[in-house]
């Protein structure tokens, strides 16, 4: 009560310093600066120590231009023929759709079990750590490992891609589940609902939109991965034909045609994803 | 008005139809691809058993460790430098191509087209085309990762600029600031944390992708894994995978910490 008088009657103060502080120094600003500087230093170091195998830049660029010219301006079906290429494309697309379905189903169950607001901490942590390890191993290595156990072919590709999809989607879904308002879950809990009733009546409808959009993002990633796996592990699909045309027969006209086909499919996938996302967001 | 019973029946039919379509696609797919679900499922424990026996690091595989780490560090450095160079290029392209800071509609359309084009050409195609003219060297791997990252980062940066910077920009424009003042005093400082977050994500991603590029172009960690794997030195291959896991998770942890501070 006594010192309140001081607060009420404040003496007018002149602005003390003439220079206005434009930027407040905070931990975040220092951190950003620090990270950028170290990244630039690393880049500088790497670029000056890069092993270029004494490539003649002029000649290489000229060769690249002529290759790109062959690819994009004179595409042709090459020795494989249109039918076989379309078959390979369909195979890659089917592999990516199937692995996305597997990833979505298993990913959702693991995500429910791993979310902090639904289950106990220990189970959640174990699933999280396992998924982080699975995600750290590149898809191509998974496919190579499975190709030894079940032989070269689509089975190895599907299993290899599924592993990474499940781990990726588990993380994505569990992040959206954890974003749910606590009251939604509590209001069902007080009615005495069982665990899976809560999951399917409260959580599933709430995360539907983000579930759909994450799943379609994964579908696009899986299509790219299916091509990569086909090329590097010989696991079927258009990736293998792409690898043969560009690395063995050097038929860049065919490479161009395959690239056009792939771009067409990715545009189509993106278009469908946008349509379906709008459909779910509008409901 | 719709009765609740009718609504629930319709909802039930609707859900059944969606599940039937997805399940049908799956069954049709496994039939076309000759994918035997049961033996596929059985292959998973067998694969892990095989991994447990063959990938076990032995006393001998420790000898490979210095070489593996050297290649792995080289790969990480390559991933970082390609991401940083791609980010520097993409930030300028994104500035002239975004809806709020862009020059005009025509340029925006071209930038969007280029970004989507670079993004959608598969990494395999980039690696193989570049391998043909730039030969087997780290530079080829660098270029393949660079071109792929540019496509992703241009789109990401444009979305960041459109989401985060438009209000700040408007405020500064109202004071009569010039275009470059607006860019350097409002837009860039505003988007910097998000940009950094995307760069960190891209680095993680590029370390993983570098394995694929390495297998195809014969550089870095991908090459050394492929070499050990195809010459049946599985203990060394297991060591390589273990090193990749440690480095990728380490990078993820570091960037999560950085994100916590900056965002």
From TrEMBL, chain A:
Q: Which InterPro entries match?
A: MetI-like, MetI-like_sf
Main location as per UniProt: membrane
- UniProt key word Zinc: no
Check the record and name the Pfam families matching this protein.
BPD_transp_1
Identify its membrane topology class.
Answer: Multi-pass membrane protein
* Span of domain ABC transmembrane type-1: 89-273
Q: Where are the transmembrane segments?
A: 30-50, 89-114, 126-159, 195-216, 223-243, 255-274
Xref: PROSITE patterns: ABC_TM1 (PS50928)
Q: Which GO terms describe its cellular component?
A: plasma membrane
One of the protein's GO biological processes = transmembrane transport
Q: Where in the cell is it found?
A: Cell membrane
Question: What are the alphabetically sorted keywords of the record?
Answer: Cell membrane, Membrane, Transmembrane, Transmembrane helix, Transport
Q: Which family does it belong to?
A: Belongs to the binding-protein-dependent transport system permease family.
Name of the protein in its database record? Phosphate-import permease protein PhnE
Q: Which organism is it from?
A: Companilactobacillus kimchii
UniProtKB/TrEMBL annotation, chain B:
Keyword Membrane appears in the UniProt entry: yes
Q: Which family does it belong to?
A: Belongs to the binding-protein-dependent transport system permease family.
**Locations listed in the record:** Cell membrane
Q: Which residues cross the membrane?
A: 12-32, 76-97, 109-132, 139-158, 178-203, 210-230, 236-254
A GO term (biological process) for this protein?
transmembrane transport
| Occurrences of domain ABC transmembrane type-1 (ranges) | 72-255
Keywords on record: Cell membrane, Membrane, Transmembrane, Transmembrane helix, Transport
State what protein this is by name: Phosphonate ABC transporter, inner membrane subunit
